[in-house]
Design a protein that fits this description.
With 199 residues, this protein is of the alpha+beta class. 21% of the residues lie in helices and 36% in strands. The chain folds into 2 domains: 96 residues, RlpA-like domain (Barwin-like endoglucanases, Beta Barrel); 71 residues, Alpha-Beta Plaits (2-Layer Sandwich).
Length: 199
């Protein structure tokens, strides 16, 4: 009986650990000029200068925060392609994303993937009200604020806004006309500037 228990314990010790929900750790690589302008698996044209990536199973359009575990740099990418097809790798980044993470020289790195929610704006309704609490030219700053607000507030989203001067990442909270004043007051009390946008 004791021997059977020991054998069972040894077998369990060899089982892979269940990964944390929404989090994956593994090796990232990147691709660029050779595939620039070619169609991806989603039929979107690959642009090496966009923040995109290839993953084997995540749905197209999924936004993922990728963190280089060697230097703690992070970037948010949108999945629009399939891959990588090299054993042991979990994500293939665009040139632009790889440059932010410091992957261009070494070619690969150990990374952590975190699936993000609340990146896209839900379809607006007549009663939709947004509280904008920040607009950043640096993507990581927007997601740092979102992560902080997620601990207290629901409906926090990061949306992309393109202008002639560049791309901005807006941090917004969705609410309704009945709750907007109370929510804006709570945010203001925390020292967070608020712009009310009615759509």
């Amino acid at each position: 009986m004791a021997l059977a228990l020991l054998l069972a314990a040894a077998a369990c010790a060899r089982l892979p650990r269940a990964r944390q929900e929404g989090v994956e750790v593994g090796v990232a690589s990147w691709y660029g000029e050779e595939f620039h302008g070619r169609p991806t698996s989603s039929l979107e044209v690959f642009d090496m200068n966009d923040m995109t990536a290839a993953h084997r199973t995540l749905p197209f359009g999924t936004h993922v925060m990728v963190t280089n575990l060697a230097n703690d740099r992070s970037v948010v990418v949108r999945i629009n392609d399939r891959g990588p097809f090299v054993r042991g790798r979990v994500i293939d980044l665009s040139y632009a994303a790889a440059r932010v993470l410091g992957l261009i020289g070494p070619g690969t790195a150990q990374v952590r993937l975190e699936i993000l929610s609340g990146v896209r704006e839900p379809a607006p309704t007549a009663a939709a009200v947004w509280l904008q609490v920040g607009a950043f030219s640096v993507q990581e700053n927007a997601y740092a604020l979102k992560k902080r607000l997620d601990k207290t507030y629901s409906g926090v989203a990061v949306t992309i806004f393109k202008t002639g001067r560049g791309v901005y990442y807006r941090v917004r909270l969705r609410t309704d006309a009945a709750s907007v004043d109370d929510l804006a007051g709570r945010l203001a009390a925390e020292g967070i500037p608020v712009i009310i946008i009615r759509e």
